[in-house]
Amino acid sequence: MKYSALDLAKYILQKCIDDSRPISNLQLQKILYYVQGEFLKEDRKAFDDPIEAWMFGPVVPSVYERYCMNGAMPILSVPDWMKTEEDKISEISEEVKKIVDKVAEAKRALSPWDMVRATHEKDGPWDTTYADGKGNHKEISLDRIKKSFKDGRERGF
Question: Is 2 in contact with 45 (CB distance < 8 Å)?
């Protein structure tokens, strides 16, 4: 079963909060990128939402828009004034949680800027799409992400 990127983002954020390791939106974006990469390695997708090449690395726009009001600060919860039915965390399968948890635990230990540097690897999916700014906000090809993870150039955990 596939989930939306927002479903997985809410799960990741709650896990990090529960573990007393809250993360920022920037970190969340990179974790979602690595989660997708780990699933693509197994020839399946974690979510259908596009991942775009932005200045500071891969971004899932739908998730970015939801949490951008937090700026660079750790996301501690969804403010009461924003709570909607959408804020409920979907039931995530144990199989999916196992992969997502490994990625979240490994990557949240990195500083946000170390995560940015890691996703900016020369000739990697972000670099070839962003192309020195010419590809800003362009979708990163799933095939590029898949190849990078299958080749072992990138690893989620």
Answer: yes
- The pTM (predicted TM-score) of the whole model is 0.92
Tokens of 139: 């979708």
The continuous run of DSSP H or E covering 141 comes out as: none
**What whole-number distance in Å separates Cα of residue 12 and Cα of residue 6?**
10
Q: Cα separation of 41 and 155, whole Å?
A: 10
Q: With CA atoms as reference, report the closest residue to 139 among 38, 39, 41, 36.
A: 36
Residues 127-148 pLDDT 10s: 999 999 999 999 999 999 999 9
pLDDT tens for residues 15-35? 999 999 999 999 999 999 999
Domain limits of the chain?
5-150
Q: Which two tokens stand for residue 9?
A: 């983002």
Q: In what order do the strands lie in the sheet with 138-139?
A: 57-59, 52-54, 138-139
Instruction: Classify 32 in phi/psi space as left (phi over 0), alpha (psi -120 to 50) or beta.
Output: alpha
**Cα-based distances in Å from 119 to 43, 67, 93, 101, 104:** 21, 20, 27, 19, 15
**H or E segment at 11?**
helix 5-18
